[in-house]
Amino acid sequence: MSVLLLLGVWDWLCVPFAMALPVAATTSVTAATTSASQSTSITGRIYVGPSEVPTDAELATYETQWIDPVSTPANLTTFHLYEQPARGSNLLGSYLIYLPPEYNFSTASFPVMYWLHGGYGYSDECAWGVSNYHAAMLVGEMPQTIIVCPQALPIGYYVNSFDGVRPIEDVMIQDLITHIDLTYRTLTDRASRGIEGMSMGGYGTLHLAFKYPMLFGAISAIAPSILPNLTDEPWQRTADTFNYSTEYWEANAPWTLAEENAQYLRENTYIRIAEGSNDTRLNKAINSFGATLTALGIPYDSWVTEGAEHDYEEIVSGMGALAWSFWEHAFPPTPRIRHYCE
């Protein structure tokens, strides 16, 4: 009886012990890592409110911010640089990465989630989401998952710009995924690669995953900015990417890509779309997009958090355990946190 009691206490102590352990970067990252002093010369961040639009000077700054000006990592993450040959020679971008608790205690490989920040935003917008998922991993309610939070441009919709000057899409698909798979112990099959994003990042999630369904098996779009018409958005948000071209907007739109790749998306792809009930600017567009998916025979999970605004934390908090059980169903089983106590 005393042995059983001791084992029970040991299991109970398992979670606090694991929470105290640092999440360290893999030792294979060398030239891809930078220090805070190396990024201080980069133009600082610009914050634009949800009802505001940036000035021409601010837009010009946004167009160059492939590296987050703030290199201090968000909680549980580390900051790194990587090469972006899709843009040209010797050009770099940055990302934050979270390595799950089990990463440094095994030789296993792990699924990966790419978390995309919103418009006028930066890579550390993932901080709350990372902490939320980390807590679920600690108690075995979510697969042990690597989370990558790239610094895309604060504008751009994760679409290659019309003029080819800002190939955000190519950087994400060709450069970042390749770098992550070569640098960390990742599971590289599509079933083990997911993507999540908020607002503009939600648009980017749908755009990238629907255009490249062979790469992503799990898709989570939170309050995606998928207004149907180019003119529904202020030109300051769209002109540098779409060049006022309705044709280019439509060609890259998630609804267009869903139709083009409907057969692939119907098979073995987990999709969820979540929103807040008070996100009045986007509710109608998100519902209309859901109807499009249904008409195409593409299954997806829909969630509405009552009372939530256009706010990631509000929406995801309202999901409760469904926030991480989505990934439990989408990703293959991974090593469990109990390894800390064995």
Plain-language structure description:
- The protein has 342 residues and is an alpha/beta fold.
- The protein is 36% helix and 13% strand.
- It contains 13 helices and eight strands.
- It has an eight-stranded mixed β-sheet with strand order 1-2-4-3-5-6-7-8, with helices on both faces.
- α6 packs parallel to α9.
- The two termini are 20 Å apart.
- The N terminus is likely disordered.
Side by side, the strands of the main sheet go: 1-2-4-3-5-6-7-8
Shape, please?
A: globular
Tally of alpha and pi helices:
13
- What order do the helices and strands follow? HHHEEEHEHEHEHHHHEHEHH
Regions with little confidence, pLDDT below 50 for 5+ residues: 1-42
Helix content range: 25-40%
Structural Rg: 20 Å
Proportion of strand residues: 5-15%
Structural class: alpha/beta
The biggest beta sheet reads: 8 strands, mixed
Number of strands: 8
> Termini distance?
20 Å
The overall pLDDT, averaged over residues, is 87
